[in-house]
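Before going further, learn to read the protein records used in this course. Taken together, the tokens spell out the fold as the letters spell out the chain. A record is reproduced here so that you can trace the correspondence yourselves:

***
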Amino acid sequence: MLKTALVVPESERENAVSLLGKLGVVQIHFESRAPGTAGEEARQLANVQSAISILESADATPQPEDRNTPRDPDLSERILNLDRRRAELAADLTVLEKEAQRIAPFGDFEPGSMAPLAAHGLSLRLHRCTPADIKDLPSSLPCSIVGRSKGQVFLAVFRRESDEFLRLPEVNLPASSLDDLRSRIAEHRNRLEEIEMELSAHRCHLAHLNSEAVRLQQRVEINRAVKAFRIDAPVAALKGYCPAPDMDRLQKLAAAEGWVVLSESPGPEDAPPTLIRSKPWIDAALPLYRLINSLPGYRELDVTPWFLLFFAIFFGILIGDAGYGALLVVGLVILRTVKPVPAPLLRLGWILGGTTMIWGAITGNWFGLEALSSLPLLRSLVIPQLHAYTAASQDNVMQLSFLIGTAHLTLAHLLLAVRSRRSLSALAQIGWILIVWSALFIVRFLVLERPVPDGTYPLLGAGILLVVPFTNPEKGLLRGMGSGIGNLPLKLMNCFSDIISYIRLFAVGIATLAVAASFNEIASTFSSGGFFGMIAALLILLVGHSLNILMAGLSVIVHGIRLNMLEFSGHAGMEWSGTEFNPFKLVSPSDP
């Protein structure tokens, strides 16, 4: 990645931005002042996007637009006004319906007709009570039971100010009659239906609005990019980043337009973006990076191939079922026939499905059914030492998990050693490799009670002797040794715990098998119950295995990614501080 500066005449800024957008190889550096205030086009874009969202939620299939009908320049505003009116009517309708529901038990009467009673010192009061409260009412008080509902009695009482106060819940008099409320409710509902029909009719303009949104989005981006220029009349300069392989294309454009392009390697104070260009199969890691929203920093190791390799291994062991892997592969085949699938995502699916099938086949796990692994063809694929249905295999899988973890951490230090091969710090990485393997033998003893091989502790000591003086050689011998000794105890403890952490591969894998086998056993108890028993068994299998696949998938996110992002990254000195390279690109809107 190269840090670039494009120098153009001040008057050609917008033309330069348009040509850069078509070229699509430069990420523009926007300073905090560059975006400026939102302009008219930004407001229009927001309106168009809101209108699109409103129409997409309307209940109708979009019809082809009539090209002979002149387009309404205020279409977006009209749609927004309809939506605002719809929201107002819906809110008013809710209030009216609640009010009608509140006074419905008292029947239909006109509140205004009660006014003459006031001249005689009478007022109408509405109350609700229980049937038991009726007998306690004063006999002299004129009242009428106007309704009953769900154990409640509704009363209309005519009283004078001097009458005894009723200790019953009072209901406020309505402002309108029930008949008037119902009429207004009907009007609101009719108007809402009309608005829905109007919005549905506008769905034929969706293609045009989408095209208009693209056009306005590009105008907003062009304006923002134009403001990113630093002006020193009569010229203006635009800073950015360009991948080194694409620099020739930028130079050719600049030469053709009479511009000046300056480039240099990013300095320590710069934060260049990360661009990962790999072979197609390695690009399968990109969906994972987007899932976890992380990228290696520009100055960090590019661990993409190794990230993908070990994640695929972790995925296969954590899922652990060849049947589930086959379902993933079949699902991808079906999905491809329904809609296009991005190539990196498709390749990732093939890889993960393949590793799951391989691990499931060599351990004899097909949908948690031991009987399937006994079939001649499938039995020939099983490695006896790893057979999932033998007790001895558990120790072997645990030991393999530790071995995979050791190889993973060894790779991290080996990559650092290669990167720092011209520095004495490479010796410290070799020392850590010795420590990691010593830790493996000690962990095997602590967890599996396997004997510690001869030479383990001398190997550990040799690793420490390399780590202490050469971790920070730039500080000098004595200060470097002091720093190395100070950090060593905690790092040693972390090294042991990191290797033990890989036991999660065994634990989660065997849990997935146990859950599958349990649902199979439950289903088998129902299968002998005739037709309905078979239906119940099939439902149990469907729900049980679906739930197991879901939980296993979550375990991959929690554990499979964790081993790459924490254990491995901690040993590789990675912080995953990268930001994805995002070149300035303009796409021509296609308006039907």
Notes: The first helix runs from residue 13 to 23. Residues 72 and 474 are 70 Å apart (CA to CA).
